[in-house]
């Protein structure tokens, strides 16, 4: 395909959104490098220590940042679909509800609401079904982690009702 006498690749401009993604990836890698630098003396006698995996992750993120920047400069990313805002709002609302209600309502109720609002974000808008299903599933998870595995999860009125 040509636009006049120019090939299609010559009409493409660098992708600004991809450059932002590359910068964010590089920033995350920088934060990991900075955080790991505080643990440098903890390796002891072995070359494998608490800094090995974070270093590997940081190098991978830095490599992805460079690769993303190169592809952004070439402008060869596929066209992105329009972002739907409503599902993101449902999911973020579910996360906010869980964070706000975790200590007050306990794990089962707050995580059940997160489940229901996330399901609503994916198109299942029957909250009268998804809220009870989410609470039951979350309660089963709470029982497994809290009672069987002896891990501490916040207990609310529902958990105190049964245990």
Please provide a brief summary of the model.
The chain has helices spanning 8-11, 16-37, 52-74, 85-121, 127-148, 157-162, and strands at 2-3, 6-7. By secondary structure, it is mostly helical. β1 and β2 form a beta hairpin.
Outline the structure in words.
- It is built from 6 helices and 2 strands.
- Helix 2 (16-37) packs antiparallel against helix 3 (52-74) and helix 4 (85-121) crosses helix 5 (127-148).
- It is an all-alpha fold.
- The radius of gyration is 24 Å and the shape is flat.
- It has a two-stranded antiparallel ribbon.
The overall pLDDT, averaged over residues, is 87
The helical percent reads: 55-70%
Specify the structural class: mainly alpha
Main beta-sheet annotation: 2 strands, antiparallel
Q: Please indicate the percent range of residues in DSSP E strands (runs of 2 or more).
A: under 5%
Order of strands, main sheet, comes to 1-2
Give the assembly state of these chains: single chain
SS field, number of helical segments: 6
The count of β-strands is 2
Segments where pLDDT lies below 50 for 5+ residues?
none
Can you tell me the overall shape?
A: flat
* SSE sequence, one letter per element: EEHHHHHH
Q: Taking Cα atoms only, what radius of gyration do you get, to the nearest Å?
A: 24 Å
Cα distance, first to last residue?
69 Å
Number of separate domains: 2
